[in-house]
Amino acid sequence: MRSGYADGVVWPAPRPDAARVLVCFGFCGGGTTAYRPWVRTVPPDVDLALVCLPGRERRIAEPPAQRWDQLMDAAVTSVRSVMDRPYLLFGHSMGAWVAYEVALHVQESRAREPEALVVSASSPPSRSAEERRHAPTSRATDDELLDWMCRVGQLPVEIVDDPSLRQLALDLFRADKRAAESYEFRPGRLVRCPVRRLNGTDDPDVDPDDDGWAELAAGPVDARRLPGGHFYTAAVWSELPRYMGL
Predict the structure, then answer these.
(1) pLDDT at 2
(2) Is this structure's pTM higher than 0.70?
(3) What is the domain extent for residue 68?
């Protein structure tokens, strides 16, 4: 019987008898909180598994990864703990790159492959060289980072208004940015599982017409545009699993 937390995975409402698992990776500077309400949205036969990387929430005492390989080590360890059932990988923003690399890792290691890869609000990792220059970078000031995080709706007002919580959020965001900037894309590797792409119609940070994800998949990519910006509208976000093909 699973507890609510193990191996870096948060199970908001454990369903050990569910047939499938939706494994979610957080966005840059994010944890599991934004995904927890999805327990009310996922179908009854789906268990929700939220990967909690070092430096946040239950792992606040652990230093966050400063390089991509460190971040991936933690992500792969978590996913290996849920492979006893069929599973899907979901990642939002930076989390989409993590999910993509995890899918490739399990392919190459001949472990159980995901049923699908769902990438949300993310340019393809093949654009990593451009993304390293895309503001805000890890070298931005705290004010610049805070401005971006508030603009896209990433920070709730209770964190913005609390100086200590705000600084923790900024430090984590900067660390995740630094790790993402160390990512080196390796061409020629294709994800074998079905790929589903979600994008906001008003997201200024992601080009919805960029077909780069199609170049990284062995099969066709199912692309869907949803209302809103980088985090969609509040109504869409609250029910995002409905658009994942579960």
Answers:
(1) 46
(2) yes
(3) 5-126+186-243
